[in-house]
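RECORD TYPE: inverse folding
INPUT: structure tokens
STRUCTURE:
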């Protein structure tokens, strides 16, 4: 019933932009952050995912990311990612703004993807700004605890936004522009607790949420579906295809 209502909203309120968080990828076997079984239940984010931690102890940060990049590269897109790509294919979703670094939207076939927290595709040198491809980084990590910039020899940093860092240049501007133009932002799998991305739904004329747990903006949403992303979004595509 709620999937059917969501399908109606998407059809009525064009353009629609999707905003995703870690919850869209849990069905691909990637834990989210703030659930009881999430990553932050095991490790302190400020010890492994902040720019201060990277400057203090890059080896510890790379220990965390080496395992994480391996997990994310092995993961496959799930029904939720595929449904969002199918909605774009049908002209019903104009873009996906994602907080995820796992590249699963692109691998599912989504074409307009704005990665507001960067991705695991690359690592960057904070000294000379050289960008290194993830494959080359992983080769270095087989023998070194910290990958080094091939130009200046400084430690490379994972190409993801860490706590305490600014978001990638241009990505947030593009995401804000998309949200302002949208007549519906569809939030999927995010607690909407990390700013500035959590403010994007408020830039749109209206927003709907698909999330298993509560979010910071539930009371302002046009519709909240408290279901799984894969099941709900597959039902939405089916409802639109049979409408
Ligand atoms: P989150 O863990 O805060 O929220 C995920 C939400 O998805 C939860 O409410 C959960 O109940 C829900 N959920 C889980 N599986 C679901 C499913 N199958 N279907 C529907 N809902 C499901 O994740 P978030 O909102 O993405 O966190 C914000 C962002 O913070 C992250 O995406 C991340 O980019 C960023 N962040 C990055 C770092 C870093 O490593 N540099 C550190 C912390 C946060």
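DESIGNED SEQUENCE:
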């Amino acid at each position: 019933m709620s999937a059917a209502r969501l399908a109606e909203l998407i059809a009525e309120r064009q353009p629609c932009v999707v905003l995703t968080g870690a919850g869209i990828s849990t069905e691909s076997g990637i834990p989210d952050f703030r659930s009881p079984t999430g990553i932050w239940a095991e490790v302190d984010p400020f010890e492994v995912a902040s720019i201060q931690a990277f400057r203090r102890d890059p080896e510890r940060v790379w220990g965390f990311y080496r395992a994480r990049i391996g997990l994310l590269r092995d993961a496959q897109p799930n029904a939720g990612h595929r449904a969002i790509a199918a909605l774009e294919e049908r002209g019903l979703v104009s873009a996906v703004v994602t907080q995820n670094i796992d590249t699963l939207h692109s691998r599912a076939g989504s074409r307009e993807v704005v990665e507001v927290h960067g991705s695991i595709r690359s690592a960057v040198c904070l000294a000379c700004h050289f960008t290194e491809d993830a494959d080359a980084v992983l080769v270095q990590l087989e023998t070194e605890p910290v990958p080094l910039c091939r130009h200046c020899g400084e430690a490379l940093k994972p190409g993801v936004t860490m706590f305490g860092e600014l978001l990638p240049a241009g990505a947030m501007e593009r995401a804000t522009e998309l949200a302002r133009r949208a007549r519906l932002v569809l939030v999927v799998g995010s607690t909407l607790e990390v700013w500035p991305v959590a403010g994007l739904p408020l830039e749109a004329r209206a927003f709907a949420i698909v999330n298993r747990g509560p979010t910071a903006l539930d009371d302002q949403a046009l519709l909240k579906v408290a279901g799984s992303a894969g099941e709900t979004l597959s039902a939405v595509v089916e409802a639109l295809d049979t409408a």
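NOTES: The chain is about 35% helix and 15% strand.
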